[in-house]
Amino acid sequence: MSAQAPDAARRITARQIRARKGGEPIVCLTAYTAPMAAMLDEVCDVLLVGDSLGMVVHGLPNTVGVTMEMMILHGQAVMRASRRALVVVDMPFGSYEGAPSTAYDNAVRILKETGAQAVKVESGAEIAATIAYLTRRGVPVMGHVGLRPQAVLTEGAFKAKGRGEGDFACVIAEAQAAAKAGAFCVVVEGVAEALAAKITQAIAVPTIGIGASAGCDGQILVTEDMLGLFDWTPKFVRRYADLRGDIARAVRAYADDVRAGAFPAAAETYFSAVKG
Ligand code: KIV
Question: Model-level pTM?
Answer without folding.
Answer: 0.93
